[in-house]
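Hello forum,

I keep getting stuck at the same step: I have a sequence, I want structure tokens, and every attempt I make locally crashes halfway through. Rather than fight my setup again tonight, could one of you with a working pipeline run this one for me? It's a single chain of 293 residues.
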Amino acid sequence: MTGGPILDIGGFEAPILVFGGPYGNLEATRAVLAEAVRLDIPASRILCTGDACAYCADPQATVDLLRAAGIVAVMGNCEESLAGDGADCGCGFASGSACDVLSRQWLAYAVAHLDAGAKAWMRTLPRQVAFRLAGRRFRVVHGGVSEISRFLFASTPEGEVAEEFRRLQETDAVIAGHCGLPFSRIVGGRLWHNAGVIGMPANDGTPRGWYSVLRPEGGDIAVEHRSLDYDHAVQARKMRTRGLPEGYARGLETGLWPNLDILPDAERQRTGLPIAAGSLRWPGRCQVDLRMT
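Reply #2:
Ran it on my machine without issues. Output:
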């Protein structure tokens, strides 16, 4: 499945709101869109890094809400798989692993609960979105530039991030998602930014989701990592009622992932440590300050 072409949405001199991984979590999706209204950020300046549907109970309602909101979204590996009634989520999990078993359960549920219109919308999503903010050239992807389902983390070796940047020579910054954890890095003067996801917690022992705001300030760009509170208990109850994997329902309540198969050692060691919202100015400090409380 090729998806749509690169979508260029133009240039901006006002704040951009970014979030990833709605994951079929209707309550979280409503909450982040309410944040955009509170911050006076219109749909034309809201970006979703993909995976509209995954673990949670409301795939169709979440897609309907995203489409009605008119925000800009890229294709994630979940959209790629769901649109084609795929057998797995496309993450490349080892056969029989915990991630593989759990993903097949929620995927079957999502496929069964999405209508033809939702799947058609997923097929039209671009794999990349281009825009300019305060004159800087941004590209939005799902996982990596090289692969839709590539996992990149705050601990990923700098050389691997630099190689992803080399695939986009005419780009100053990349916004990505997929890994589920918020972070920002500056590599060779270029920004790699992951806003995190809203539909599942960040494995930090709290039920919060994460989103970000990128704001032009005096020639620089402020990158703000923000936490998202929402009624996670309602979504967890719906997941249990509808027979979805208990591990993910419990994860919404505890803030802990049911398995850590995808995490590098550095991220595993931070399991259960609450993340504090942080920010950076680009250019400026080389690393966003996301201190543990």
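The first helix runs from residue 26 to 38. If your local run keeps crashing, start a new thread with the error log.
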